[in-house]
Amino acid sequence: MYFCTAILLLGFFVFAEKGGEQNVAETLTKKATEDLDNLILVTLYDHRLLTLPQICIICGYDVEQKFRQKINRRLKALIALGVVKRRRLAQIGIVGNPIYMYYLTESGVERSVALLEIPFNRYGQNNKIIEKNHLEAKELMISDRLLPHHFHTQNWIVEFIQSFRSIHGQEKFASLGILFKEPKRVPNYVNKLGQVTHRPDWIIRIGRTNVTINLELDMGTENLKKLTTKFRNYADWFRDNPQSGNHVILFTSHTEKNITRRRHIKNLAIEYLGEFIREGRLEVCEGSIPITTGWMMSYLSRVIDPLERDVFSEALKTTYDPNSSGLTAEYTYLEACMKLGKEIPHCDKVHFLFRKSPNSKHKVIFQLKVEPGSCLSEIQSRDLCLLASSMNNAEFKCYVYVIHDSHEKRLNDIPALQTFNNVYSVDVQTLSQKGLKHSWVWSESKRKWQRIEVDLL
Question: Which residues are CB-neighbours of 227 under 8 A, at least 6 positions away?
């Protein structure tokens, strides 16, 4: 009898243990599902309307089939609960394969702001709002006319997140404290008269830096007069707010094939904002999504790892053999200013190549790492070319070598240096593989970069 009782008790404990494990597993699964639902709701509150792939990426998932199906199931459940709705993006997509964007209902907004711990609006007498703390569902809606613009703006964010995560990983992305903010939810850009000067399409804040990034998506609909007004308004604000910190304007061209329009945008940026760019308060980058997201990648890569190998200097020393050709001298920017006795435009290094032959000119090379689409890089390159031209004399022949990360980035850039015959482009990729054997010059007549042999001797 005792033996039977022991067997029954053992069976009970085994059953209880299995039941306990099952309850723990169910609890964990339920918690994970609830956390994912909350993440989706908060993401929709921050970004207003998003497609399924956009939600996947911004929530930290890849757009693989398993993750896509998982998010899709949760969206269907949230729609059934009445906290999320969806609408079709009619202007984009093809027949039979429509694109849908998801957004919050009033109940979804209430749940989101509760998760974000944002207090609800405070009302006074006659239901008048005393203090407004969050956006309501109707304020998150976007008209059909502006919906494609919003869709492409969010696509820029998604492209950047995917590019960064593919190189540095999700943990590094999270550690930078990157926040994507709608302009409505941040203090307005106002001048001394209290007037709002401009409102970018989206604002990006990076916790580990003091830089504010203004995203401007160009759909090709604003005429030259409106574009001029936009840059003039930016200039007014920077003039009225000298202590505003560092800012970046990423002017992303949705119509990237329209080179004339893109050239106009860059020229306007340099004309109206050039003084602030030279002061180091502002950077303006104009280009396609790959160019502007590439600028962000390069900037954040320098934040993560500020030390960068100087491949150009290594290749130059190897190519210009001091034992047979002459002497080389390498100076930093500050050292070069002291040697030349003048303030030169910013560059990374200055190389003096002294020939043994008394009848030969010595060569001076200004080295500058550039970013495609960057107005700062263009201003610096232009100023260096002017200085190099003014320094050419019986003793010296001066050149400017601009360094791109890769040949593809050179091809994507729109050169504005066609009036100078002393600027050459090399890329880190080729330098690492083949050394300094050839460079590229811009041919205005053929509207493309052409390769030439390097002759440092």
Answer: 264, 265, 268
Say how many Å lie between the first and final Cα of the chain, rounded: 105
Encoded tokens for 312: 């150009």
Residues 337 and 292 placed together within one structural domain of the fold = no
The number of folded domains in the chain is: 3
Assess whether 228 and 252 both reside in one domain.
yes
Under 8 Å between Cβ of 249 and 230: no
Q: Which two tokens stand for residue 190?
A: 């106002």
Tokens standing for residue 307: 């030390």
Residues 115 and 202 in one domain: no
Helix ranges, 116-223 (H): 137-140, 147-168, 170-175
Q: Is residue 3 part of a domain?
A: no
**Tokens, residue 457:** 């001797």
Could you list the residue range(s) of the whole structural domain that residue 418 is in? 311-453
The last residue of one of the domains, among 120, 138, 170, is 120
Residue 285 lies in a domain: yes
DSSP code string of 88-117: EEEEEEETTEEEEEEEE-HHHHHHHHHHTT
Which helix (H) or strand (E) segment is 18 a member of?
helix 2-47
* Distances from the Cα of 92 to the Cα of 32, 48, 89, 97, 145, angstroms: 34, 18, 6, 10, 12
Does this model's pTM top 0.85? My answer is no
For residue 37, which amino acid is it? D
Of 273, 304, 335, the residue at which a domain comes to its end is 304
In a domain, 128, yes or no: no
Q: Are 363 and 392 in contact (CB under 8 A)?
A: no
> Residue with structure tokens 């079709």?
88
DSSP 226-241: HHHHHHHHHHHHHHH-
- Domain containing 291 — which CATH number? 3.40.1350
> How is residue 407 written in tokens?
């040949």
Digitized pLDDT (tens) for each residue of the chain, 457 residues in all: 544 555 555 554 444 555 555 565 566 567 778 889 999 999 999 999 999 999 999 998 877 777 888 899 999 999 999 999 999 887 665 556 788 999 999 999 999 988 888 877 777 777 777 777 888 889 899 988 889 899 999 999 999 999 888 888 888 888 888 889 998 888 778 877 777 888 899 999 888 777 899 999 988 788 889 889 999 999 989 988 888 888 999 999 876 567 788 888 889 999 999 999 998 899 999 988 888 999 999 888 888 887 778 898 888 887 776 566 567 788 888 888 887 777 888 888 898 887 766 677 778 889 999 999 999 999 999 889 888 888 877 677 888 999 998 888 887 777 776 667 788 999 998 888 888 888 998 887 777 888 988 877 6
CA distance 176 to 115: 22
